[in-house]
Amino acid sequence: MKAHKVVGLTLGALLVASGCGGGASNGQTEIRFIWWGNDDRAKVTDEAVRLFESRNANIKVSTSFQNFQNYFEKLSTEIAGGNAPDVIQMDYRYLNEYAGRNVLLDLTPYVGKEIRTADWDQGFIGSGKLKGKQVAMPLAQNSTTIVYDPKLFGAAGVKPPEIGWTWADYKEVAAKIQASTGGKVAGSTDFGGTEDVFETWLRQRGKALYTDEGKLGYAKDDLKAFWQLSKDFRDAGATTPAELVTTLNAGAEQTPMGKRLSASEHSYDSLYGGYNTVRPDELKLGPYPSDSKETLGSYRKPSQLISASARTRHKDAAVKLIDFLLNDPDAGKILGANRGLPANLKIREAVAQNLSGANKVIFEYQKSVDAKLGNAPAAPPKGDGTIYKLMQRKHEEVVFGKKTIDQALDEFWRDAEEALK
Amino acid sequence: MVLAQRRSQSVAYLFLGPWLLGAIGLTVAPMVVSLYLSFTDYDLFNEPRWVGFGNYAKLFGDDPRYLHSVGVTLRYVAWSVPLKLVLALAVALLLNSLRGKGQAFFRSAFYAPSLLGASVGLALAWRAIFDTWVDTPDHALITIVLLSAWQFGAPMVIFLAGLQQIPRDLFDAAAVDGAGWWRRLWSITLPMLSPVLFFNLVLETIHAFQAFTQAFVVSGGRGGPADSTLFYTLYLYERGFTEFRMGYASAMAWVLLVAVAVITAVLFRTSRYWVFYGDER
């Protein structure tokens, strides 16, 4: 009878012993930092992290990255599995999703102390705040933009994007380009399923994606008009075919623009580095078309934010890394404008002094549109991540002719309201 | 005597130990927990909240996308399982007729794709090869069916072993009676092989219901385009891990478990009419 217990205990002890083997400590702290991006971002991020390690010999940082599409799935799995990374790159759209579930460390006690903010735009710091708690720090600023191929615009004899051009202008220009390539290259990438584009378009009409109470900030007719606009582009032969719609939101190399199948694409200026890796020095950035004289709809968005896990066992090391990435001049030099304009204004200025390549294009674009940019709205409510995908899916069903706009709209509305409950 | 028996029992437990711990810790316990979670609203990070049969009611009453994913999965099972088994059987028959002449080589060669099995790299390669196909809703599911059918190695090897068990004298006797190739296939090979066929059918059906990796990779994790490859498991994953509705996902998992169990039971029921174990009459 006792044999059972003996066997059980032995096995238990073995397991415990092997489990504990991993935790050898010799004054070294090890933290994990995860983020999304592509190879060019990996290069500068790793370089900055190595510099951090060399200055903090007792802290070891392991990093890993994903493309945006898979990032949040991996992150939620890791957090749910009790294996949360210590330092987490965050997206504005997912901030409420995570902070609202209490998985992000409240950084309020560190702001202005361990995390220096003297050289910051105080309003911009607020974009990482939810209900009075600083759950993230904005890493950099970006805005929506049109990435375009000036050669194709030139060859078709049309004017490149400039402030003042309208959606009708865009449609005409895109159709001309598409015709001039014999239909081989689309004039624009289909934008109807992308919530970022919809948001910019809505703001041009004085509306917003969400109300302050976290409800949908627009009416069914608004989305209907937007999907109709996208359909007008398709009908005019001005945009990418249906099969290419599904490849949006992947890495730059997988977008129609990266594959040389489109002459212009709605995007973010902070993604220019990715485009520039795939198509070096070929592409430019221009303003969104807008039917409003006053605004482009684009705003000073925190391109990415950085948070610490609420469950990290190394708060100090995590906070130290966050401050280093945000405020260290040398880190700033290495990171450049890869994630957008640095949040720290001194670093932004320093980076602006010595611009080349992708950074230069991004800075010049931001400068050219700055007067027309708005301030960031409150971070989207919980459920926005679901709605983001929902919009893409429902639009896809319309493009493939599986649903009419009205059918897709009804289904979108039902599921979106459900997601916000 | 009794003591020796006890000792041999404890030795058995000792050897069973690692497996038993794994089975309890990694299978039984999570299953029990997921059964509990299926009756709750659970967002992964905070305490679960009891909702009774709410999740189950919503599945069948108020979630068209769920029913759509059931349809996609059934279509996938109905296409991929027969296709894979027919391929596996055909190749096994071919290899069996080789008898020594390079059989080992071809057996390994045809088995290779199955070794790569649920590999992500393979699905990525598939995605690249069928680039435009996977991006159109009407063809995307077909590409995944083909990917699965191509990995027919495991049932093929089992068929081959089964074929080699069939006594030669049955064929010799049939040949003497003037039976042709088809006749021998229909009246000897298939009946003698039916237990193996049944085994493969059950196994592949269960696998097909659980298919995940291929669809996940080929569709970029979205079940797209336009939900045309929204497998049951993919939707379950999306609900659980990207929408943080783990209670709902658990309910889905339990419905799948019960459905697969029922289908397997039905297969066993029908087996008495077509599976021939040799010792019956």
Automatic annotation (TrEMBL), chain A:
<dbReference type="InterPro" id="IPR050490">
    <property type="entry name" value="Bact_solute-bd_prot1"/>
</dbReference>
<dbReference type="Pfam" id="PF01547">
    <property type="entry name" value="SBP_bac_1"/>
</dbReference>
<protein>
    <submittedName>
        <fullName>Carbohydrate ABC transporter substrate-binding protein (CUT1 family)</fullName>
    </submittedName>
</protein>
<dbReference type="InterPro" id="IPR006059">
    <property type="entry name" value="SBP"/>
</dbReference>
UniProtKB/TrEMBL annotation, chain B:
<keyword id="KW-0812">Transmembrane</keyword>
<dbReference type="Pfam" id="PF00528">
    <property type="entry name" value="BPD_transp_1"/>
</dbReference>
<feature type="transmembrane region" description="Helical">
    <location>
        <begin position="184"/>
        <end position="203"/>
    </location>
</feature>
<dbReference type="InterPro" id="IPR051393">
    <property type="entry name" value="ABC_transporter_permease"/>
</dbReference>
<keyword id="KW-0762">Sugar transport</keyword>
<feature type="domain" description="ABC transmembrane type-1">
    <location>
        <begin position="70"/>
        <end position="267"/>
    </location>
</feature>
<dbReference type="GO" id="GO:0005886">
    <property type="term" value="C:plasma membrane"/>
</dbReference>
<dbReference type="InterPro" id="IPR035906">
    <property type="entry name" value="MetI-like_sf"/>
</dbReference>
<feature type="transmembrane region" description="Helical">
    <location>
        <begin position="12"/>
        <end position="39"/>
    </location>
</feature>
<feature type="transmembrane region" description="Helical">
    <location>
        <begin position="141"/>
        <end position="163"/>
    </location>
</feature>
<feature type="transmembrane region" description="Helical">
    <location>
        <begin position="110"/>
        <end position="129"/>
    </location>
</feature>
<feature type="transmembrane region" description="Helical">
    <location>
        <begin position="76"/>
        <end position="98"/>
    </location>
</feature>
<keyword id="KW-1003">Cell membrane</keyword>
<dbReference type="InterPro" id="IPR000515">
    <property type="entry name" value="MetI-like"/>
</dbReference>
<feature type="transmembrane region" description="Helical">
    <location>
        <begin position="246"/>
        <end position="268"/>
    </location>
</feature>
<comment type="similarity">
    <text>Belongs to the binding-protein-dependent transport system permease family.</text>
</comment>
<keyword id="KW-0472">Membrane</keyword>
<keyword id="KW-0813">Transport</keyword>
<protein>
    <submittedName>
        <fullName>Multiple sugar transport system permease protein</fullName>
    </submittedName>
</protein>
<keyword id="KW-1133">Transmembrane helix</keyword>
<dbReference type="GO" id="GO:0055085">
    <property type="term" value="P:transmembrane transport"/>
</dbReference>
